[in-house]
Design brief:
The protein is α+β, with helices and mostly antiparallel strands and about 290 residues long. Helices cover about 20% and strands about 35% of the residues. It contains seven helices and ten strands.
Length: about 290
Amino acid sequence: MPIDAAKALAAEPRSGEIVWGHKDVQLYHLGLGAGANPDKESPATDPDELRYTLESRLHVLPSFATVAGAGRPGVTGGLSMPGVEVDLARVLHGGQSLTLHRPIPVEGRATATSRIAAVYDKGKAAILVMRTEVTDAEGPLWTNDAQIFVRGEGGWGGDRGPSARLEAPTGPSDKEVDRPVREDQALLYRLSGDWNPLHADPEFAKVAGFERPILHGLCTYGMTLKAVVDTVLGGDVARVRSYTARFAGVVHPGETLRIRMWRRPGGIQVAVTVAERHDAPVLADTIVEHA
């Protein structure tokens, strides 16, 4: 069996140094579409967008944690852990959870410690939960949990893991925005460190079962958080405490994200769909907890 759950869970954590600066933050924000806000007549010079693109005004969207240090160890890092040997073409990013311990600085040097925190048997697939804890000289910065979905690797009789889903929101959303995905957006976003050819190479995408390259799930994840921060949280990135989402469908470059938001005590519940495909779901079970 390519996945040895006991070996993966017993493996020693891996630690390494990650470093980032303002150019890494700016590149990440541009990969999410910053500077191209369709709601503004002159988005590139709009003060709300300059917070993401101009170094003298820069703040850091919390989802930058998923790519800090060029995305290491990232989802593919989990596939090189002891006890894990799988075909990259069978791998999908199933979900992401992020907990912020304090705001992310524009310039940083930190230690990232990663391990496989759980392995679940879903029958026709396996799910690996890769946990990364990041700490700098001042203490903990953030904790990332990546759920890695591996098709065809389940069925060994292991723990199925949690299956709870959030209750779907009822009634009209409190806020709704559309965010277009540029045709070149996956090519730009991958420069922040996710080099999976699924998002760039048409032939690889076909082998993986897709008609053409798809947008990174974490790009949709970041675009969604930016929309929540800009629309509901007054542009204040420091208010975000945690952010969890399940990847429920694919997005192709050139499509439009429809992002609906419902206010809840202490948080925002979000649903993201593709407008052009009759609101096909993209992100589900999505919550942004905030101060």
